[in-house]
Amino acid sequence: MSGRAHPDVNPVTDGGDLPIKSSPHRHKVGVPPKQNMFHDFMYTFKETFFHDDPLRHFKDQPKSKKFMLGLQSVFPVFDWGRNYNLKKFRGDLIAGLTIASLCIPQDIGYAKLANLDPKYGLYSSFVPPLVYACMGSSRDIAIGPVAVVSLLLGTLLRAEVDPNTNPDEYLRLAFTATFFAGVTEAALGFFRLGFLIDFLSHAAVVGFMGGAAITIALQQLKGFLGIKKFTKKTDIIAVLDSVFSAAHHGWNWQTILIGASFLTFLLTSKFIGKKSKKLFWIPAIAPLISVIISTFFVYITRADKQGVQIVKHLDKGINPSSFHQIYFSGHYLAKGIRIGVVAGMVALTEAVAIGRTFAAMKDYQIDGNKEMVALGVMNVVGSMSSCYVATGSFSRSAVNFMAGCQTAVSNIIMSIVVLLTLLFLTPLFKYTPNAILAAIIINAVIPLIDIQAAILIFKVDKLDFVACMGAFFGVIFASVEIGLLIAVSISFAKILLQVTRPRTAVLGNIPRTSVYRNIQQYPEATMVPGVLTIRVDSAIYFSNSNYVRERIQRWLLEEEEKVKAASLPRIQFLIIEMLPVTDIDTSGIHALEDLYKSLQKRDIQLILANPGPLVIGKLHLSHFADILGYDHIFLTVADAVEACGPKLSDEV
């Protein structure tokens, strides 16, 4: 039989037929000293919420130094600002001007995605980046509105209030949602709960972002084709039906010509930028050039009189206060909280992922929890100054990185440019065609469709691919919130599946070694006659204890059938490799007790190998170790098999 030793050969011998006797020098499994319950709780609490030991810099420091360190912890600008110089400013100035040229046309388009006046997109690239520059720890992230969050926010808000019939209530609810998005982000960071965003798996995020990108692109067909009556739904069927039903009378050829021409220009500039990193500035300034040229073209030809839809009036001036517009009571409060929590979590996931990506490229660390606090405060302040949810933008951050940014000052430079635009240049956008904004947004969201990542996910993990496709199809065929719900649900389902159905494996001996490994991974590994060795690859908790016991019994039953068919010695010892079992609770201990009693009735001895300190400590306290016998608990599988040798050789 494959993977099985000959009945007359014991793999734990030195080459002869006699078994190796139990070594008197074999190490016993140590039982850790009993821990103080309070100390044990504090250790667990610290590892859960303060694993990075954020207060280590404060140890053995004078009070004045501690105050300064505390200030730098909350406002990192006081840390990196001490070493700021002209050389760094030169890099930040170029990067700031570059991302400003990209953000201005994007902000106008993204505001439309959120069903808001274009000026609110510009407002959201003025105040939030200034706050983040003082409190954020990432040197490369560029702050402002982003496509996915804008679409999500617009979809959720529209479900509660119609922006056309009740624009004032819609705007107030948008500010309320932004406020509670900020509160959510700041609370997660302050209470060290940043690990919660990790429950949304990478595969689910890839699928969600891809679906959202396609949904956003389809939504732009209204402006790209010049359609006036367009569906309020976001699913692909409703959008395509709306597009083709307007084909004979609702499309405007001048609008299509403008959109197609400049989309081609934008895609070409992006291609040039990818071909040569030195030409990164070409795709960065292409959107602004497109806006300038198309606006001038519409103005001199008066194409707006021929049905080309334009931005129209854009108010001058900086952000007005909006604190009085936030709902702190009434029936819109609960809706604002719900929308804010969802939008805040998605914005947080995107920003932290971007920050970590660029930090890894430049080999520096960012504190995820501090980032969340910075992003949260930024949105809370933004909600009080006529901004909607802002976060890290991948396209802008990539341009910021390639432009040579050195610190968060590039965000300040961008904010200053946006400020100047708000004060002096907004009237110039009056004749900007909606088609160019649609082209800019389509160009911006194309990179969110990561086909290579989806292919890799399919190759590596089929269950991850199901999560990816579930989120993807949920977004494009239902809605953004349904897609997000599917993404979260499948991510949690995968966690539950892995927890409740842990992997187990039969181990065999690697020839000429004392190493025991999975016989499926190592076909040359041989099983010891009369011994079945099983490894449990998970902690044993109430959620999986019965499954683990039943799976071990099924392994044993299958092995006994094979042994009987091959006329090999019957199974006398069941060894459980406990190294991967990081923890066990009372349900897990009861499962082991039930297994032990079941094996006793069949004259099979249960043996445990290599239990960790937490596991052996609990087995000792529960007295199961006494019931099993400490002479049946071994440091390694090899020691356990060696101890089984004499009895096996007597029967052979």
From TrEMBL:
TM annotation in the entry: 141-159, 171-193, 199-218, 253-272, 279-300, 337-360, 372-391, 411-429, 436-458, 470-493
GO molecular function: secondary active sulfate transmembrane transporter activity; symporter activity
Membrane topology: Multi-pass membrane protein
Keyword Membrane carried by entry: yes
Record keywords: Membrane, Sulfate transport, Symport, Transmembrane, Transmembrane helix, Transport
Subcellular location: Membrane
GO cellular component: membrane
PROSITE patterns: SLC26A, STAS
Keyword hit for Transport: yes
Region (Disordered): 1-29
STAS domain location: 521-644
InterPro entries in the record: S04_transporter_CS, SLC26A/SulP_dom, SLC26A/SulP_fam, STAS_dom, STAS_dom_sf
PANTHER family the UniProt entry points to: SULFATE TRANSPORTER (PTHR11814)
Protein name as annotated: STAS domain-containing protein
Lineage: Eukaryota, Viridiplantae, Streptophyta, Embryophyta, Tracheophyta
